[in-house]
Specification:
Blueprint (H helix, E strand, L loop, with lengths): L2 E2 L2 E2 H32 L6 H18 L4 H22 L9 H23 L15 E3 L4 E3 H23 L1 H11 L1 H6 L4 H23 L13 H12 L4 H21 L7 H12 L10
Antiparallel strand pairs: 1-2, 3-4
Length: 295
């Protein structure tokens, strides 16, 4: 058996794949944060609560409405996206031009409100969510048995992340979005409806968080506090990649998931803090992040 640094190769490969699964969630969540901050300059602290809401809506759809995984994979992000657009119209828009701290406090308050409502109705116990029948089972890769559903999560996350990057960075729609946020007055002079584009962008960003929640529902126990700890790690991912960098969030999310998986092999106690150690090192060397632009 091949041994690398004292660890069997199959163990390392298994942890790399499991880390890639976690990295897929990090990439998808940090992508939503990067879209909202990069285009709207809003630090959305409620992202973790919206991730939880996506998972809870998927569970509610199955438990009370008889809606399976596939309908909720579309309906839950759509519902959360619409809620996000209403939130942006009624509240966030009033903070336009103010310090980032006001948006952070508002979204933090929204987090507490959302979590409190779900805890009041459903308690804090974890609820199981079944893997859809077509994605059940596993594939023997020789060095590990990989559940088909986890491979599906990686595939969907990569496709959504790459499509989002392509639309924002390489299409006329993305150019209009960037123009509207960098110089709203000039963009409006060219006929771009900047307020509408801002609302749609925020809705899309929070819908990405809800999509990650639906994908996570069959993997984790669904409960109202499931996004509380994860959002801190995701913020660290965004900072390492560069605040507002779409590509930075995707690449950093995937890489840090892999690094976290390797840490579980070589130094398990450090797996919970390795992301923050990497963040401290990156900020010392490059304060703007790996892909960020210096002010």
């Amino acid at each position: 058996m091949t041994v690398i640094l004292g660890k069997p190769l199959p163990v390392l490969m298994a942890q790399l794949l499991l880390g890639l699964v976690n990295g897929s969630f990090y990439a998808l969540l940090s992508l939503g944060l990067a879209v909202i901050f990069g285009l709207l300059n809003v630090i959305n602290f409620s992202h973790g609560a919206l991730y939880m809401m996506g998972a809870m809506l998927a569970w509610i759809g199955a438990e009370y409405l008889g809606l399976g995984y596939w309908p909720m994979l579309v309906l839950a992000p759509l519902a959360v996206g619409i809620l996000g657009m209403v939130f942006e119209r009624l509240l966030l828009r009033r903070l336009q031009g103010l310090d980032h701290l006001y948006g952070l406090l508002l979204t933090f308050g929204a987090t507490l409100l959302i979590q409190g409502l779900f805890r009041s109705f459903f308690g804090v116990s974890g609820q199981p969510y079944a893997v859809p029948e077509v994605l059940r089972g596993s594939v023997n890769l020789g060095f590990m048995v990989l559940p088909i559903y986890r491979a599906w999560v990686v595939l969907v996350s990569l496709v959504v992340c790459l499509l989002t990057w392509f639309v924002i960075e390489r299409t006329p729609l993305g150019a209009r979005l960037r123009a509207g946020t960098e110089n709203a007055a000039l963009a409006q002079a060219f006929g771009i409806n900047v307020p509408l584009m801002i609302t749609l962008t925020y809705g899309f960003g929070v819908a990405l968080a809800a999509l990650a929640g639906v994908l996570a529902a069959p993997v984790l126990q669904v409960q109202p506090l499931m996004g509380s700890d994860l959002i801190i790690v995701v913020f660290a991912v965004v900072v390492i990649g560069g605040m507002g960098s779409i590509a930075g969030s995707i690449v950093t999310g995937l890489l840090l998931g892999v690094v976290e998986g390797l840490a579980r092999v070589f130094y398990p106690p450090g797996s919970a803090t390795v992301v923050f150690v990497v963040m401290a090192i990156v900020l010392l060397v490059r304060p703007a992040g790996l892909f960020g632009r210096e002010a």
